[in-house]
Amino acid sequence: MTFPTSSHSGTGAVAVTPHHDATRAALRVMDSGGTAADAVIAANAVLGMVLPSTCGIGGDLFALVHRPGMARPEVLNASGRGGSGLSAAKLRDAGHTRMPTYGAQTISVPGCVDGWEALQRRHGRLELRDVLADAIDLGESGFEVSVEFAESLERLAESLRGQQSAEPLYPNGTPPAPGAILVRHDLASTLSGIADHGRTAFYEGETAAAVALATEGTLTPDDLAANTSDWVEPIGIDVFGLSGWTVPPNSQGYITLAAAWVFEQLGPPADPTDPAFHHALIEAYRAFAWERNDTVADPSHAPWDLAEYLSPKRLEQRLKSLSPDAVTQWPEPTAGPAGTAFFCAVDADGMAVSCIQSNYFGIGSRISAGTTGVFLHNRAAGFSVIEGHPNEARPGKRPLHTLSPMLWTRGNQPALILGTRGGDQQPQYLLQVAASTLYAENDPASAQAQPRWSIGKGADGKGSVVFVESRMMEQVITGLGAAGHSVAPGPPLTPGWGPVSVIAVDVDGIRTGAADPRVSTAAADGD
To answer: What is the DSSP string of 132-198?
Structure first.
């Protein structure tokens, strides 16, 4: 059984996104003289218009940017902070033992628009109106509802009832069918204001007032006006013959790199049809996944210095605990909290951008900011209510983030740009595609098409269930069972286990992008 993968290979600009309209927008921007940074903003704006069940300007953003000649990429942390009305103590007093999943208390400051401005100011070339033009036009003229979006709107109908910005999504009060045309004048108007006035159009004035009102006091206008993004140093490690980089905590991205290093040190066969290959991947991932909720937090409150997350001593200790043919037991993870979009681009000049943006649980908190077309994320659900916990909910603090964009370099050139949606499961999907591409040396399209596995929620130490796509080779399933894994079959392609987007750049500068066949709208294209 084979599945077609959208892919492109060449020496010009290339973009990969979860939706063909976003890929086209990214390429149009680069063809008009824009950079890869301009391109990912254009793609992001379109995705928020046509797939608000994954991302939008009511959420947060992270990006890694690499220009030819850089020793390491730059990292933009555009995740927002807890508002003035956020209090773990009040939540505990109200009987909460963990953060709520939805509702006003789960809304932290949306960092996306500030991130756009920071990204464009440092690495962009076009005017913001040119960059946002495609998204605004789609909102005004209408766009075709994809199968995925139609299914999301059907599923979300009851929870969005009464939200003013939901009205354009449900013509005549009912979910649209795939292929229907939706018009979103409300969001197009909000984006037009941002195109003309930048971040102030979102964080001050009428839009900010609508956001604050929707949060019932969790956020104030002052919280929004004070929001800032930060350029920070990446964390990285040498693995697979390259240098791998990701966003430091408050992102969970380190898990992918730590697991990749341990996997490589285990030295399994470079053959995805061999059960030892998958056993090593699963065990390397499980060795770190259990600790996430206790170790990832706002860096000013994290339990470790940033260097500790990928320190050789710590990784070597985990490596010694693993067996090449048996399941290792780990502590039970503590309770923790997946709507996201990852998109990437490389422009003609060689700038590479790995960008991820999210509303978190699908469309987020299920709350819109009045008639602005903006749905507000529930990223504050990533906080803890436990007193004294590194991730305890508090005003001005960034929550634990699942967003985990990746970028590998070969010397001072980009080699692989990689990311996915998937909430807390992002590292395991990234690990599989990275290992298939860089360790087993498959081309990106083949790596995307490989049968994927997913460890059940929590990745606990007492024998987590490994769900596998039904295309997985029988010898792999049998071999994993013999090693002590509990294996359960799933569909041939599982949309929620992606979409992964990937661009590989070889030593000759050939850029090969491949979209994930698990989502029908995902597209890779280039010049």
So the answer is: HHHHHHHHHH-EEPPHHHHHHHHHHTTTTTT-GGGGGGSGGGSPPPTT-EE--HHHHHHHHHHHHHT
DSSP 379: G
Whether omega for the bond prior to residue 68 falls within 30 degrees of 0, making it cis, is no
Match 């996430």 to its residue by tokens. 292
pLDDT mean over 310-319 = 96
State residue 329's pLDDT score.
Answer: 85
Task: Give the model confidence (pLDDT) of 194-208 as tens digits.
Answer: 999 999 999 999 999
CA distance 447 to 451: 9
Q: Answer yes or no: are the C-beta atoms of 409 and 501 closer than 8 Å.
A: no
Chain-wide mean pLDDT for the chain? 94
At residue 454, the 3 state secondary structure works out as strand
- Tens of pLDDT along 441-452? 999 999 999 999
Q: How many residues does the chain have?
A: 527
Q: Indicate the domain borders of the chain.
A: 15-231+338-382, 232-337+403-526
- Cβ(349)–Cβ(68) below 8 Å: yes
Q: What is the CA radius of gyration of the chain?
A: 21
In 347-440, the DSSP E strands lie at 352-360, 367-368, 375-376, 406-410, 413-420
Token pair 């992001």 is at which residue?
Answer: 44
CA distance 122 to 347: 16
Rounded Cα–Cα distance for residues 112 and 126 (Å) = 18
Per-residue pLDDT tens over the stretch 119-139: 999 999 999 999 999 999 999
- Work out the pLDDT band at 213, boundaries 50, 70, 90: very high
pLDDT for 468-499, tens place per residue? 999 999 999 999 999 999 999 888 999 899 99
Q: Does domain 232-337+403-526 have CATH number 1.10.246.130?
A: yes
Q: Which residues contact 374 (CB under 8 A, 6 or more apart)?
A: 56, 57, 58, 110, 165, 187, 190, 207, 210, 211, 368
Q: Is-above-0.70 flag for pTM?
A: yes
Residues in CB range of 508: below 8 A, 6 or more apart? none
Distances (CA, A) of 233 to 27, 200, 390, 416: 28, 27, 21, 19
Q: Which residues of 298-313 are buried (b: 16+ CB within 10 A; e: fewer)?
A: bbeebeeebeebbeee
**pLDDT value at 336 more than 60:** no
